[in-house]
What does this fold into?
Amino acid sequence: MARKLPRADEAHHRPEQHRLGQPRAGHMGRARVEVEFDEQTVLGALFGQFDTNLVLLENRLGVYISARGNRVVIEGPDDPVARARDVLKGMHQRLLSGQEVDSGAVDSLIAMSVEPTLEGIITGAPGGAPPIMIRTRKKTIVPRSATQIDYMRALVSHDVIFALGPAGTGKTYLAVAQAVAQLISGSVQRLILSRPAVEAGERLGFLPGDMKEKVDPYLRPLYDALYDCMPPEQVERRLASAEIEVAPIAFMRGRTLADAFVILDEAQNTTPAQMKMFLTRFGQNSRMVICGDPKQVDLPGGVSASGLNDAVKRLEGVEGIATVRFSTADVVRHPIVGRIVEAYEGKNDGKDE
It folds into this structure.
């Protein structure tokens, strides 16, 4: 396969080929690097239909990419060329490990390419720790932003994790995936997913149906994450056997949650009393993840009434407790979601205080 994109400044000059796999500076700070891929069966997915992945790299990083067979030549300014090379290698490694590479994955790798840890995350350090990933029955999940790297590490190293930030950053999804992985491996016996049933007060009586029918609509995002990580029949079986429990936070009162992975979503809409009650349910051999956006509080008293904000102020820095803050730069849904969040919150409001 050959790919040539004509460019005016190349009409009379093409740099000589360079095969060392490292960018070489040319005139006016330009570089050229050639990357050769040994496994050719994944090249179609690597380049994308009609070379869409290569075009995306060109547009995002401002480089020129040409492909012939299993060789790719990247030209442009030094740093973007180096980043494009690392992203292509990361994409190739993901494909070899059975991961899909779509435009979202390419965007996330580009975002992480400014981090010095990208190659170690994708391939694993030689002779060192394996790549950071979460394996479930349906898929293997790898980090798609720099903050997700810290979050995924915290999910396996701390007892209580506060995940703070805007929608679309993967806070709840990654927590559910890690919980499913630990349930499957047997390291916990139960998976408990909870959230405030409504924005304030959990007043459910006016809704039709029994209690499950009343609260299920509010817990739908948690079910969606579950079904994305496990086959439907397994989710239903484990729900029936109470290995997986999805319930509003009010149902946690008076319980001790031992041998369990416990997730509280939309935690910004808990009161301080509810948050204290929830945190003190923690039992032996358990892990607890509290997810929420401190800026999106729907309680009548606003931000000052949020149990999430109160808990973070009290507990940040306590041994065994991690706090991970996501920003609009970590949004991994459609790119327009990140731009929408940024427009509402303001460009200078990236990290939650």
